[in-house]
Design brief:
The chain has 202 residues and is an alpha+beta fold. It is built from three helices and twelve strands; from the N terminus they run βαββββββαββββαβ. β9 and β10 form a beta hairpin.
Length: 202
Amino acid sequence: MYLSKIHLTGQYAKNSYEYHNGLWKLFSDTPDRQRDFLYRVEQKQRGRVALLVQSCRPLQTVDSESINVLASKAWQPVFHQGQCLRFFIHANPVKTIKDAQQRVNKKGQIKSCRVPLIDFEEQQQWLIKRLTYAARIEELDINPLEPLYFRKQKTGAGKIQPVRYQGVLTVIDPEQMKILLETGMGPGKAFGCGMLSLAPAG
């Protein structure tokens, strides 16, 4: 795995959609490449955004003044059962609800949509469920973040309501913990959600 600090400016610093487009240029070396990186916004200023990026492979060199790789290093985390770690993540806790009128889509399935979880208990249970088998939460703080707005050609305008989770966890299964770290948690990864950061607790 690799951790990188990246500054985006110009067009790529406009919004979350453009952040992702800029980062993709560092990884999309083949037409059928699947996204295998996660990122989080660390700082925003007018015309500039600082991102922390986690990837499964090293970054490519790109010829763009708007994409500046400040630092990048290889990182191989090692976990063990009972390990106590501080964690930090911007996540998009949601639940899926089905259409009340039982309308169906083109595949004949009942239509559904994702709605944000705004209740503390629901947000807490969302995180606990995703950490199941990997870790147990010992301490937890949850704080809302600014909404992220976006547009899609097929569905029109949309909004993500991310939250910041931080606290302390105990590793239950080291292998599951590693998988969770590599794949991220929840939806909204293209908009900077889902990257789990860990550090020794104490």
